[in-house]
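re: that chain from earlier
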Amino acid sequence: MDALVFAAGRGTRLRPHTDETPKPLLEVGGEPLVAHCLRAVVDAGVERIGLVVGYRSELIVDEFGDAFEGVPIVYAHQRDREGLAHAVLRGVDTLGADSLESVLTVNGDNVFDCDLLPLVETHRDPGVDGTVLLDRVSRNEAETAAVCDLAPDGTIRKLESTTADPPETAYIAAGAQTHGSELIDACREIDRGESGEYELADALQSLVDDGKRYVGVESPGWHLNVNTPADLERAREHFRGA
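^ sequence. v structure.
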């Protein structure tokens, strides 16, 4: 299995931290933010990493070179940052379509202090076409978030669903997924979303609607999506207390 790590964004909401430093290189726990993603995919057993870069990409290439902890890195340049589905296709252009026979995709602005191996292991189960890492949220949080609609066996029926009466325990997507080769066509066929970008969530939902079986896997540890200065400080505080 290969990995695609998305690290092309500028991090506008993190300014002024990102005025000179690309978001993936912001320090968290004594190392670049995206290093936590790279270590998570290496620990999950991937054979190669496609790192999708954009803003100040030369600094990221200089930081990591051609390998991370012995696993080769190939860089895909997303000069026009038009969403994560677009980033997948840039990765395919660089890695080759055979890289998506099975692929672990990770949002590079997430900090993982958890094991992604359960995603990979579940992906290999018979009858499973893909997996989605899930964070458990409280009922109060679920009332203001787009939660995953899950069947009793964990199969995802809808990736982002809103409800006026959420269950006591609900789940939201947590920035890591596994896919098969059908992801390529799904990313090519979707329209731009309301954000104006080609959204990976829309591609995944189209696969679910077409009968592909994606299974939710609850995160076995801590995870945080870093979007704002407050998120950055929270991530730093987590590792200071580790």
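Residues 84-95 form the longest helix (12 residues).
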